[in-house]
Design brief:
This protein is α/β, with parallel strands linked by helices. Helix content is 45%, strand content 19%.
Length: 259
């Protein structure tokens, strides 16, 4: 009996030593809710975080509006990287987040036209209006303004140039910007509005062209993150990492401005 006890003790000591030598073993891998517009930049950030800390995170992409609702209903996320401030601040106000969090990036909106589209591209959207009127434009892809901040920014931009009312009947709405981008790459829309970060990704860059929508045409796309109540150490470390120079440099490479 004494020999068995010593063997158990040695196993326990071995496991403890392994956890100290390999911190990732002792750390949980938290679920992180991330706005779909971050899908091009996030893999590089997660990889950099893992190399710097030895820890990992599980990323789920989706619309900020859906994530806000899911987290309020108890979805097991420890950190929420929203595409704007409204949904993140709402979680803090309702007591689901630890605080109001921090702005980690400022996004830009792009007007994207796939190869072979009959719609011309320009940063004043002049041909978009003409194409809608003469029938060249059949479908315009945007993210749902009720769920996605980039969809709301698109609506504001089209209202700014007087095109919204005339073009509403041609809209095909993506639940998030990732689905909106798929509408453009599969030929379901002749033009659309997506984040600059996605327009410049390898896949979309090879399949079309884009122009950046003037920032003055819509409210700033200030992307805010919040720690969800009960968040663990790894989620907190990733939150801090998002604000550090390495992550900020990677965000800048993908078309985001620093907060």
């Amino acid at each position: 009996m004494q020999a068995i006890s010593w063997r158990r003790m040695l196993v326990a000591l071995s496991l403890a030593a392994s956890a100290l030598t390999h911190p990732a073993v002792a750390q949980e891998t938290p679920n992180v809710a991330v706005a779909a517009n971050m899908s091009a930049a996030m893999p590089a950030i997660v990889e950099a975080f893992s190399k710097a800390t030895g820890r990992g995170v599980k990323i789920a992409y989706g619309s900020s509006g859906n994530f806000r609702r899911q987290i309020a209903q108890g979805a097991p996320f420890q950190l929420f990287l929203s595409a704007d401030e409204e949904f993140a601040e709402a979680l803090a106000k309702d007591g689901h987040a630890e605080s109001g969090g921090a702005v980690y990036a400022v996004g830009r909106l792009a007007f994207y036209v796939p190869q072979g589209s009959p719609v011309g591209i320009d940063n004043k959207l002049k041909d978009l209006g003409s194409a809608s009127a003469d029938g060249r434009l059949k479908r315009l892809a945007i993210a749902n303004p009720e769920l996605a901040p980039y969809g709301r920014a698109t609506r504001e931009a089209l209202q700014h140039v007087g095109l919204w009312d005339g073009i509403k009947g041609k809209l095909v709405l993506g639940e998030n910007v990732g689905q909106t981008a798929r509408f453009l790459t599969t030929g379901e829309a002749q033009a659309g509005f997506i984040p600059l970060a996605l327009a410049g990704s390898a896949e979309l860059k090879a399949r079309g062209a884009w122009s950046t929508v003037p920032e003055s045409w819509h409210a700033p796309l200030r992307q805010r993150m919040v720690l969800i109540k009960g968040a663990g150490d790894t989620a907190r470390a990733f939150y801090r990492f998002m604000l550090e120079p390495q992550a900020q440099a990677l965000l800048k490479q993908h078309g985001y401005a620093s907060p």
